[in-house]
């Protein structure tokens, strides 16, 4: 079957890293990613099920991995070669031979790995904190899309454990369902931050992570007052649909932070600032900016995979700011009930117009073009780029009315 396969190659890693510094184009000739038509999934018995991919997204973390610009931290939690793709809408088999539409929760925690007893985190539903992602009945891998045993979304089929499979209601389109994984990530971040009613919140970045954070704030913390930094006009338009005040530059966001908190400016630093700032980009520049605009005693939420960075933490120390990491999804306590983050995201999907965020869908064969599009999505007026292994040509999906 058709698949894009990622192999470890130190030579290619070095070449990709060098090229990604000098060019914003993905270069397939040195990339560790190869297109093949004769990929075979490793054999798996029940309860694992073979599912058929309908759509699989390209995440910012996939781009960092392909560009070799991300931290090498995860290499030891990954098994090579593997098929990338952790945002997956699929068809799962029923007992009677029919199939149903599902969205995949990609985390490969204790239950998925058939580990018993469960680790202390999984036993209370905190699968995002699982410590067993290199053991059990699967090869190493934190998620489907980083694990040799499961395959991933950038192919025709992959293998899933029943606990990873969430049924989709008829009312959620494939395109909207593709955004459920990034929405669940964002909801987990918002529920970790727990912004109080009337608190002032800033969101830096308006790509997929930023937009889904705005969506999560809109639906889970509607009384928070949200300011969003969006560099591109299409991003600004999408962000404003969630009721955020839109700022277009770091300077504008600084001035807003000062005005809202009745603070003062000391050079570029705001003494005062936002109660909570979400850094949805994770670079040296954005995290430094987040520390500038967050109030003394406030919180910075680090959403999305950060780049390796060197940063001056003096403002964190001086303003006694907390930086909180947020990774993936698990179980949440929301409105006094425990719920899987994915189920909460599925429940809210229809109220958020998620289809709007899927910009272009490519066949696997056109992976070079797709990855270049995803890499430059903000500049090119796009948000989410995805693969449909069954499609023959790239296309823009039908937008929500
Ligand atoms: Zn992702
Ligand atoms: Zn675990």
Structural summary, described in words:
There is one protein chain. The protein has 401 residues and is an alpha/beta fold. Helices cover 26% and strands 23% of the residues. Strand 13, helix 8 (284-293) and strand 14 form a beta-alpha-beta unit. It is globular and about 65 Å long. One zinc ion binds next to loops. Residues 59, 61, 86 line the site of one zinc ion (ZN). Its EC number is 1.1.1.264.
The total number of structural domains is 2
Number of strands: 19
Helix tally equals 11
Coarse structural class: alpha/beta
Radius of gyration from the alpha-carbon trace, in angstroms: 21 Å
Based on the structure given, which CATH architecture of the largest domain is correct?
Alpha-Beta Complex
- CATH fold-level assignment of the largest domain: Quinone Oxidoreductase, Chain A, domain 1
Query: End-to-end span in angstroms?
Result: 36 Å
The molecules bound to the chains, other than polymers, are: zinc ion
Strand percentage: 15-25%
Protein name: L-idonate 5-dehydrogenase (NAD(P)(+))
Domain Alcohol dehydrogenase-like C-terminal: 209-336
EC number: 1.1.1.264
GO molecular function, one term: L-idonate 5-dehydrogenase [NAD(P)+] activity
Quick structural overview:
Residues 209-336 form the Alcohol dehydrogenase-like C-terminal domain. With 401 residues, this protein is α/β, with parallel strands linked by helices.
